[in-house]
């Protein structure tokens, strides 16, 4: 299983990559594997300010529909438009082309509560 060391993670299986005051968010390789074939990604929160833990969208797979949660609070600045036509990018490349949203972080100290790649690995093994 792929768990890049340069990312932070949530116990809800989202990852976050910080680039300045913007962060890219997606679901982990584990999450996409558990979901199965992703057929639709719905993000209707673009432009909205959301708190940490709030739902920013849903991902629909053949097996289930799952909510997507904000790893930190902030404004949803951009949705990955490629997912509208190719939701399977979440399965093929969850840490690259399959990213979900870009957010403008409201409070960078919330990043401290996220877990490292090693901690995420231990969570999956528990």
Describe this protein's structure.
With 126 residues, this protein is α+β, with helices and mostly antiparallel strands. It has one domain (14-107): RNA polymerase II/Efflux pump adaptor protein, barrel-sandwich hybrid domain (OB fold (Dihydrolipoamide Acetyltransferase, E2P)). The longest helix has 9 residues, at 117-125. The strands form two sheets. A six-stranded antiparallel β-sheet has the order 1-2-3-9-8-5. It has four helices and nine strands; from the N terminus they run βββαβββββααβα.
Q: What is the secondary structure topology, with strand pairs?
A:
Elements: E1 8-9, E2 14-19, E3 22-27, H1 29-35, E4 38-42, E5 49-50, E6 55-61, E7 65-69, E8 74-79, H2 82-85, H3 89-92, E9 101-105, H4 117-125
Antiparallel strand pairs: 1-2, 2-3, 3-9, 4-6, 5-8, 6-7, 8-9
| Radius of gyration based on Cα positions | 13 Å
Which stretches are low in confidence, meaning pLDDT under 50 for 5 or more residues running?
none
CATH class: Mainly Beta
**How many separate domains make up the residues?**
1
In DSSP terms (H or I, runs of 4 or more residues), the helix count works out at 4
CATH-derived topology = OB fold (Dihydrolipoamide Acetyltransferase, E2P)
Strand order within the widest beta sheet: 1-2-3-9-8-5
Mean pLDDT: 95
Q: Give the helix proportion (percent range).
A: 10-25%
- Shape descriptor reads globular
The end-to-end span amounts to 15 Å
The helix/strand series, from N terminus to C terminus, equals EEEHEEEEEHHEH
Question: How many beta-strand elements?
Answer: 9
Main β-sheet description: 6 strands, antiparallel
* Level-2 CATH architecture: Beta Barrel
Strand content: 25-35%
Structural class: alpha+beta
CATH homologous superfamily annotation: RNA polymerase II/Efflux pump adaptor protein, barrel-sandwich hybrid domain
């Amino acid at each position: 299983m792929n768990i890049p060391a340069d990312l932070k993670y949530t116990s809800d299986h989202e990852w976050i990559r910080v680039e300045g005051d913007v962060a890219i968010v997606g679901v982990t390789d584990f999450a996409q594997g558990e979901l199965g074939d992703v057929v639709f990604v719905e993000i209707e929160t673009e432009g909205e300010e959301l708190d940490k833990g709030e739902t920013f969208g849903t991902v629909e797979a053949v097996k289930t529909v799952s909510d997507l949660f904000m790893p930190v609070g902030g404004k949803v600045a951009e949705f990955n438009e490629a997912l509208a036509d190719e939701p399977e990018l979440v399965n093929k490349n969850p840490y690259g082309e399959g990213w979900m949203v870009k957010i403008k972080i409201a409070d960078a100290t919330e990043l401290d509560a996220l877990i490292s790649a090693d901690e995420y690995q231990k969570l999956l093994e528990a």
